[in-house]
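Per reviewer request, we include the raw input and output of the structure prediction for the construct analysed in the revised manuscript.
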Amino acid sequence: MRARSTLIFCLTAITAVVALSGCETLGYYTQAASGQFYILTHRQPVDALLQDSNTDVALKAKLAVVDDIRQFAREQLQLPVGKDYSTYADLKRPYVVWNVFAAPEFSMQPQSWCYPVAGCVSYRGYFSENAANEFARKTADAGYDVYVGGVAAYSTLGWFSDSVLNTVINREPHQLAALIFHELAHQVVYIPGDTVFNESFAGTVERVGMQRWLENAVTDEAQRSRVMEQAAVDIRRQEDFVALVSAAVADLQVIYDRDISEADKREAKVQRLQMLRDGYESLKQNWGGYGGYDNWFSRDLNNAQLSTVATYNNLVPQLMEMFEAANGNFEAFYAAAAEFGKQRSAMRND
């Protein structure tokens, strides 16, 4: 699974860092600032790379596709492209950040952390894998279920012009388009503290945008048909996966709410997680042996890991209905989604 594959990593100004108290908090924001600074100082203009005869031919081809995607996003999806993805940075690592998720042993409610601008979100991001693992260890020692997931891309919510990174550049063109549409969508509508809405909205823009892009970008009808069918298969598999995990999440919460001993809850939890694994093996058979989620299931499953799946997809069906009600008009859909997000925010703050 694209470990959400596209989560927002909160960045803040140096003045905000100085105002914060506590060595651990200061250290966290310092690594965030230095991590972003590294990207800013190692990125190169895409236009220059395309004109440079020393640029790898394969990289040139990928960057040319990015240029086309940016133009399509601006003209056809009314997304605020600006200078985003007009630069490229090779970070020499597989992920740009690693996010730490946590949840109590007997609850599906994830732990949240609050930041300036982004509000409260259900993860804590680190530019260093070692730092993420160290924070996860400390959190686990405090009695929480923890999960660390590598993230290939993130949005700075317009604080900086986001770059294309080596962590995503080798994806198939339609997958690269989907990712860029997703990240740009966060700049259209973003409700601080509402991770469910923000990721579901961006995921909806990703889906419908990719569909539009395929219809326009792939001129060969046979090729377009193959790519669109593969994209549809990928979406169906993701929906199957989300449904499987969401059912386990609901069952586990019922278990945790029961008036039984912790030992009994722990045993029931182990049994339900094994059922989840068995369910995935059945899904793989239905998928003809496709094992795209094998890595996700290779770990010891826990509440923190499961909560990431349900959280980032819960509102996609409802938002897809809004898009259809807007008759495919993106500006109308964005306005409707923004109003929906504000209503959710008002209800949460009552």
